[in-house]
Amino acid sequence: MRNPAFFLWLCVAAALTFGAAKLIDNPYVFFAGYVVLQYIVLSTGWNILGGYTGYVNFGTAAFFAMGAYTTVVLHKTMPGLPLPAMIVVGGAISGLIGLGTGYLTLRLRGTFFGIATLAMSVVVQTLITNWSFVGGSRGAYVVRPDTTDYFGIDYIEYLFLIMLALSVIAVGVARAIEKSRLGYGFATIRDDELAAEASGVPTLKLKLLATALSGGFMGMAGAPLPYYVTYLDPASGFSLSYAVNTIAMPLIGGTSSWLGPVIGAVLLGTLQQVATVTISSALSLLIVGLMLVGFVVLAPKGIIGWFAPKGPRK
Amino acid sequence: MSEALLTVSGLGKRFGGFVALADVELEVAKGERLGLIGPNGSGKSTLVNCLCGTLRNDSGSVRFNGRMLDGMKAHERTRLGMARSFQLPRPFGTMTLAENLRIPLLYVVQLRGAVANIDRRCVELLDLVGLADKAHQLPTDLTQIEMRKLELARAMAAEPSLLIADESMAGLSHQEVDDILALLMRLNEQQGVTIIMIEHIMRAVMHFSQRLVVLVAGRKIADGNPADIVRQEDVVAAYLGS
How many angstroms separate the Cα of B69 from the Cα of each of A14, A234, B50, B162? Predict the structure, then answer.
């Protein structure tokens, strides 16, 4: 399927999702759905670096929270700015941080890169905790309006729609990359960087592009967060569960294609939301842990690995 | 001999206190078949890595096709027309054979000008090395010789003017060595590709090379007609001891 056609299908799927959520006629659906969609954006963004190029990033929370705190800053300085504009700014800032992180750490391979990104996350959290303009460790309140000017829909429905649109963009971009020259280049980096360079692939440039894109999407996923939670403090914005979930979802769904992170996010995200309501919110990390163990054993290539063409391959 | 395609002058490389290459001078003419030999650890692979930009030389310079390569990254050198095969095959493991060849086509050939049909070109190249029927298999399914053929095909896919084959025959049987030799000869004679062959199998080197260069302990000790070189006293001493 060509990319424009695929994009159209994504939009149709998104419209159906919104329609279905509206039919259920329970505002909580939008609250829960928002989180699932947020994880689609996060894990799709993560997968551009972690799945396509094979660099495992443990610093999701930093990129995510930078997007969120950009919104806090913009909310205080330019309260009239529409949310989509804030998302663009948040995405750009997280993308730049991704570029910087990439430039400093991409000479590290494997585990070392992972540790460096985790360290980066801690550094950024410390900086934010000590920046009183955004509330420091006390956190910041962001008052959201009840309704919007757009067709009079509730603000939570508006946030849901925004996240839906971001998911469509993120998934559309991820899929477009996959079978392009860029996608092949990313895959060579995952397989063998030395051979990639020898085949003419500018590995450093592609890696920087991947970190910037990946960071940008994570920042965009985080930008609407202050309006969703209305109170943001560093401990929740930089919560380790973002990093853990964002790694677990693509791994469970499968990292080699755009579909994997989507499946993982929908499955794990929904399960966590259901568990939060029916049992306890403390259960969500346990669910992630158990599912990860299960999938490492049963489906090392993720759910899409079950359906991958076997063909002549052994 | 026609004009020089590759000129190496005063090339030096050290790893800490160990001198891997010292003051290496080398000239390769367009269309030439050059054999590079030397005992294990004599610096052959280090020389290749310095030529291809995988390692950075400490001193000296490399001129290729009229351009100074110093400071250039490996992928830039590949785009200028210098391709290599690795001593131990390094295929892209998650990609099919056809996709493996697609990479240099996308990142080297297509940047020079459009490729009419990339898919067909991949099959053509695989056909050239006799792997066309495995186009959609993964490299893990290949035998050792098929892996080396893939390695050569991928280097050739970049349409190089200089191909550096780093021990592409080690560990192969008599017949398999002949297969690879024939392939390299065809490349050189029909497509005019200049080839530097690094090899331990003397039968192959003697058959292939128009000129032979001997490296011992990072220094070039001989350069000339293969038949004369292998009788030279210091060359024999380097291999057998004096």
Answer: 52, 49, 10, 14
**Hey, are the CB atoms on B93 and A192 less than 8 Å from each other?**
yes
Quickly count: other Cβ atoms within 10 Å of residue B83's Cβ.
26
Helix, strand, coil share (%) of chain A residues, nearest 5: 75, 0, 20
Q: Which chain A residues contact residue B136 at CB under 8 A?
A: 311-312
CB proximity A192 to B under 8 Å: yes
User: Is the alpha carbon torsion for B177, B182, B185, B191 positive or negative?
Assistant: negative
Q: Does B20 touch chain A (CB under 8 A)?
A: no
Residues of A in contact with B93 (CB under 8 A): 191-192
SS3 B8: strand
Q: Tokens 């085949």, residue?
A: A199
Q: Which CATH superfamily is domain B4-240 in?
A: P-loop containing nucleotide triphosphate hydrolases (3.40.50.300)
**What single DSSP character describes residue A133?**
G
One-letter amino acid for residue A127 of the chain: L
Mean pLDDT of A239-262: 91
Domain ranges of chain B: 4-240
Q: Is residue A314 pLDDT above 50, yes or no?
A: no
Interchain CB contact of B148 with A (< 8 Å): no
CB contact under 8 A, B74 and A313: no
Is residue A75 one of the residues assigned to a domain?
A: yes
B124 CB within 8 Å of a chain A CB: no
Q: In what order do the strands lie in the sheet with B67-68?
A: B18-29, B4-15, B59-64, B67-68
Q: Which domain holds residue A253?
A: 3-267
Assigned domain for A286 exists = no
Interface test with A, best of B85, B90, B156 (most A CBs within 10 A): B90
The pLDDT tens digits along chain B (242 residues) read 457 899 999 999 999 889 899 999 999 999 999 999 988 888 999 999 999 999 999 999 999 998 999 889 999 999 999 999 998 899 999 999 999 999 999 999 988 887 778 889 999 899 988 899 998 999 998 988 899 999 999 999 999 999 999 988 887 888 888 988 998 999 899 889 999 999 888 889 999 999 999 999 889 988 988 888 888 888 888 877 76
Give the residue from chain B lying closest to A180, CA to CA.
B106
| Interface contact B93-A191, CB threshold 8 A | yes
The mean per-residue pLDDT over the stretch A180-191 comes to 94
Nearest CA in chain B to A192: B92
Contact B32, B194 (CB under 8 A): yes
pLDDT digits (tens, 9 = 90+) for A122-149: 999 999 999 989 888 888 898 887 777 7
- Per the structure, the count of domains in chain A is 1
